[in-house]
């Protein structure tokens, strides 16, 4: 479990103070995969650096499994570091050392007996799928393989927490996918709590249980991935969600909606989970004698649950439209007028 309590971080830049973190309150429960997303300069790196013991917060507290790590002595920091694994965007491997040696490094530093190092590194190489690459050097491997070594190295000290700093940002989409799958296995099979920072909403959708959106050093929105993706409140969150949900309305449609001379009744209908499979709209059309014109639609999956999104024009008497919308909402399907979406 990782807890941030009123954490601030202020840097001195010449004569100016830069307030990188402005009172972060965040709890990552044990066993969760928690993603923090934000644009460049939002404070993501500053946040993760307060957990990996490279920076102390200017004020506030960071607790790992109940222990306040912002107050540790030097020797306690060394001990606690073993409990916190970290992987990086550019892997941070030693190019002059073999794959075996890179993974063994934290164990060598902890004076682990040679035999035990051999056994542990072998097990880790098997786990990350690189059993036959032990004697290679990092330069001989692909980006995805390098990140697998980074993950194996981070696991060597049996940490309870893994921090991921833009771990897939330097990788192509297919490799990103395989690394995210490996991180999910790390979480499930080793029961390691994962805190990741990223600027890619696709990464959050793929593996996170919860997400916090960071802006100007503040958490502006947080919640389960499902809730944030289906009902984002803040404009920045909405931008991130739209970047991956592919529900941007085409320009021609926006023009139509915005036209003040046309009196449209256009709604966004959101189907979640079991409701996706229902033939709801055809029943509504028949029962209320309405013409329904589907202008736009897509269906996707969020945390294993289907999620559908339709933009529908309702044509018919206003009273019948209102009754139809009430009926739709009774089916636990959200219906929201599109006007504010289009403005
Ligand atoms: N060592 C430092 N000295 C002075 N200012 C800093 C320092 N590190 C970060 N900052 C400033 O703090 C703010 C937050 O930076 P941070 O690197 O934490 O954001 P970020 O979300 O990780 O951005 P990016 O995605 O670009 O890495 C920025 O305004 C940055 O310029």
General description of the model:
- Helix 3 runs parallel beside helix 5 (about 145-155) and helix 5 (about 145-155) packs parallel to helix 6 (about 175-190).
- This protein has a six-stranded mixed sheet with strand order 6-7-8-3-9-10, with helices on both faces. A four-stranded antiparallel sheet has the order 2-1-4-5, covered by helices on one side. A four-stranded antiparallel sheet has the order 12-13-11-14.
- It contains 13 helices and 14 strands.
- It has two domains: about 1-245, 3-Layer(aba) Sandwich (Rossmann fold), CATH 3.40.50.300; about 250-340, 2-Layer Sandwich (Alpha-Beta Plaits), CATH 3.30.70.
- The protein has about 350 residues and is an alpha/beta fold.
- Helix 6 links the parallel strand 7 (about 160-165) and strand 8 (about 195-200).
- The model has no long low-confidence stretch (mean pLDDT about 90).
- About 35% of the residues lie in helices and about 30% in strands.
- The site of adenosine-5'-triphosphate (ATP) has 13 residues, from strand 1, strand 2 and helix 1.
- Pfam families: ABC_tran, NIL.
- InterPro entries: AAA+_ATPase, ABC_transporter-like_ATP-bd, ABC_transporter-like_CS, ACT-like_dom_sf, MetN_ABC, MetN_ABC_transporter-like, NIL_domain, P-loop_NTPase.
Q: Helix tally? A: 13
Please write the CATH class name of the largest domain: Alpha Beta
In which order are the strands of the major sheet placed?
Answer: 6-7-8-3-9-10
What is the CATH architecture descriptor of the largest domain? 3-Layer(aba) Sandwich
| Helix content range | 25-40%
What number of structural domains do the residues give? 2
**Shape annotation:** elongated
Q: What structural class results from the helix and strand content? A: alpha/beta
The H/E string reads: EEEHEEHEHHHEHEHEEHHHEHEEHEH
- The count of DSSP E runs of length 2 or more, i.e. the number of strands, is 14
Low-pLDDT runs of 5+ residues are none
List the ligand species: adenosine-5'-triphosphate
The fold-level CATH name of the largest domain is Rossmann fold
Rg over alpha carbons: 24 Å
Oligomer: single chain
**Main beta-sheet annotation:** 6 strands, mixed
Mean pLDDT: 91
InterPro entries: AAA+_ATPase, ABC_transporter-like_ATP-bd, ABC_transporter-like_CS, ACT-like_dom_sf, MetN_ABC, MetN_ABC_transporter-like, NIL_domain, P-loop_NTPase
Protein name: Methionine ABC transporter ATP-binding protein
Keywords: Amino-acid transport, ATP-binding, Cell membrane, Membrane, Nucleotide-binding, Translocase, Transport
Pfam family, one: NIL
């Amino acid at each position: 479990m990782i807890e941030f309590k009123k954490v601030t971080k202020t840097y001195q830049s010449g004569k100016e103070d830069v307030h990188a973190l402005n009172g972060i309150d965040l709890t990552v429960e044990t066993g969760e995969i928690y993603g923090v997303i934000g644009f460049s300069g939002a404070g993501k790196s500053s946040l993760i650096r307060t957990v990996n013991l490279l920076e102390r917060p200017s004020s506030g507290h960071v607790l790992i499994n109940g222990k306040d790590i912002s107050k540790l002595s030097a020797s306690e920091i060394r001990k606690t570091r073993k409990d916190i694994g970290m992987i990086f965007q550019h892997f941070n491997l030693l190019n002059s050392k073999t794959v075996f040696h890179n993974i063994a490094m934290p164990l060598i530093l902890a004076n682990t007996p040679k035999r035990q190092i051999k056994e542990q590194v072998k097990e880790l190489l098997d786990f990350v799928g690189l059993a036959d690459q032990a004697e290679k050097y990092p330069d001989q491997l692909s980006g995805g393989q390098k990140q697998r070594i980074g993950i194996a190295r981070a696991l060597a000290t049996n940490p309870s927490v893994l921090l991921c700093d833009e771990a897939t940002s330097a990788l192509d989409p297919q490799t990103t996918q395989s690394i995210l799958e490996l991180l999910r296995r790390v979480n499930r099979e080793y029961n390691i709590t994962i805190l990741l920072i990223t600027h890619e909403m696709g990464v959050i959708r793929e593996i996170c249980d919860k997400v916090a959106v960071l802006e100007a050093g503040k958490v502006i929105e947080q919640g389960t991935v499902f809730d944030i993706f289906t009902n984002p409140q803040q404009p920045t969150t909405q931008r991130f969600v739209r970047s991956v949900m592919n529900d941007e309305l085409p320009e021609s449609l926006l023009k139509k909606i915005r036209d003040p001379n046309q009196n449209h009744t256009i709604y966004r209908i959101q189907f979640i989970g079991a409701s996706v499979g229902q033939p709801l709209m055809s029943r509504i059309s028949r029962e209320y004698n309405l013409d329904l014109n589907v202008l736009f639609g897509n269906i996707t999956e969020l945390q294993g649950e289907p999620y559908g999104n339709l933009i529908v024009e309702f044509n018919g008497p206003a009273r019948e439209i209102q009754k139809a919308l009430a009926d739709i909402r009774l089916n636990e399907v959200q219906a929201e007028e599109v006007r504010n979406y289009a403005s």
